[in-house]
């Protein structure tokens, strides 16, 4: 599909409504788009980012439709090498052998490493420009958003930022490409889920990239996934800013728990019930054994409070909760008010393992972890409620 975005920029991306798991891990209930853009000037034409391999023919068709029989693309600018954007580049090269593969030194090394491609290339450095004739592209290196080679390309004359994965979201495009031509509400939850799962670990690098974009006149945001943002570009930048500072989006609480025989679940219910009595209105109770990490990550990036409750299992933490908590720890989830709870029958380990997993996360625990030996009695359940009250107070700070 191709859509004209500005005088110099066309959308030439593709939709994937077949793949069930992005990166073989993350569910795609609304599909995903691999966005690519064609920038045309009076002297040259650049394709910015490729698409995933199985859709390469579609991208080539869109390019030909726009350029007609007498023009061809001169440059393939690679903002990001991950194969969801570079899988199709060998096919582009086969179609147009003189196509100059353009990227920074790290990108060009990766192109060789992944695809063994030899031929014309153009190495660019931070701040370099490429003049296509009335369309000047400026490159800004933004490493680790979210691979080491990532960069962004700004079309200066039109304030169009081709941002790679930054500002992206899950969700295929349903007819329209620009935010102003569609109802975009469904994409915002998918942006939080995408950010948390894919970019979440690299908040400090997103912050560095945002700092480098300060003062740049950005009128249109062209990410590699999801809608092209025009009228809501400011909101999208603001959301990425908040998420990458680990700023919660609301004062709710995510309760991540696991329970084989219901003892820990009773503790989790006692905590959630008391939080509700204390006025917390957004509580997400997630049984880690049947909830995907994507959902747990998205909720934890949304809410200010986090409760983790699990039994001790084989001298360790109940495995489904360990998996979920590790997913949060890998992303260095910070700025949360955290309450830990555990249940055991002879020697408790669960809350100790939770504590060590959370070591790299800058979080506050407003109450000591609560534990119960075998079935929780009234004293343990009251301890849960007391801790929940402390958590509710901490959420208001
Ligand atoms: C397979 C298995 C392994 C367990 N390992 C331990 C253990 O290493 N240490 C311990 O104190 N309790 C252990 N327990 C007991 C549970 O932690 C305890 O009964 C807990 O209350 C169960 O909580 P639940 O009802 O929420 O599943 C184990 C239980 C099971 C079924
Ligand atoms: Fe990526
Ligand atoms: Fe991507």
Description:
The protein has helices spanning 56-67, 83-86, 89-95, 105-115, 187-199, 203-213, 233-244, 263-277, 293-302, 319-330, 350-357, 378-396, and strands at 3-4, 9-11, 14-16, 21-22, 26-27, 32-34, 37-40, 45-48, 75-77, 100-103, 121-123, 129-131, 136-141, 151-155, 160-164, 220-223, 250-257, 283-287, 303-313, 316-317, 337-344, 370-373. It has 397 residues and is α/β, with parallel strands linked by helices. It folds into two domains: 3-244, Ribonuclease Z/Hydroxyacylglutathione hydrolase-like (Metallo-beta-lactamase, Chain A), CATH 3.60.15; 251-392, 3-Layer(aba) Sandwich (Rossmann fold), CATH 3.40.50.360. The strands form five sheets. A seven-stranded mixed beta sheet has the order 1-2-7-8-9-10-11. The longest helix is centred in the last third of the chain and has 19 residues, at 378-396. 48% of the residues are buried. Residues 259-265, 311-315, 343-348, 374 line the site of flavin mononucleotide. One fe (ii) ion (FE2) binds at residues 80, 82, 146, 165.
Topology:
Blueprint: E1 3-4, E2 9-11, E3 14-16, E4 21-22, E5 26-27, E6 32-34, E7 37-40, E8 45-48, H1 56-67, E9 75-77, H2 83-86, H3 89-95, E10 100-103, H4 105-115, E11 121-123, E12 129-131, E13 136-141, E14 151-155, E15 160-164, H5 187-199, H6 203-213, E16 220-223, H7 233-244, E17 250-257, H8 263-277, E18 283-287, H9 293-302, E19 303-313, E20 316-317, H10 319-330, E21 337-344, H11 350-357, E22 370-373, H12 378-396
Parallel strand pairs: 8-9, 9-10, 10-11, 15-16, 17-18, 17-19, 19-21, 21-22
Antiparallel strand pairs: 1-2, 2-7, 3-6, 4-5, 7-8, 12-13, 13-14, 14-15, 19-20
Helix pairs in contact: 5-7, 5-9, 6-7, 8-12, 9-10
The chain binds flavin mononucleotide and fe (ii) ion (2 copies).
